[in-house]
């Protein structure tokens, strides 16, 4: 059983993000995660129900901030199925996990090259990935997963992304959504 962190952000295998920890239950989550091999990021509950899929993450780094908050950098390891979820007295959730296979790499198709270049610029600015990791931008699955993490899609779309079992399906879904998102932003900007 691993602790769960229900939050409205998406993180997928090999993705990185920083979290600011301030609630006592999530400070405990950090302590438990360091003993049990990580924790699971999942989407928030809906009608008291946890989603069935999340991403197991490891804590890569942590810092005590000047404001007293704990900042952790996490990296996604693998998508997991969640079952037998229980909530403890302090509100921290735990669940049994079963690993899902990570999706294979696919070379970036020509039609997505502009998205690869744009993503490289954004991720360089965020300073979360090493130069070597940024070379993965030529992997279409990695590209789709990083875009999925950056754009604030609705919960339903985030669940669709998490539940994809085929790399080609994930890539088409996410990259088409990115093009749609960019197109809407351009239309609003041009208006």
UniProtKB/TrEMBL annotation:
Domain of life, source organism: Bacteria
Signal peptide (from-to): none
UniProt-listed SMART domains: LON
Pfam family, one: LON_substr_bdg
Domain (Lon N-terminal) ranges: 1-180
Name of the protein described by the UniProt record: Peptidase S16
Species the sequence originates in: Alginatibacterium sediminis
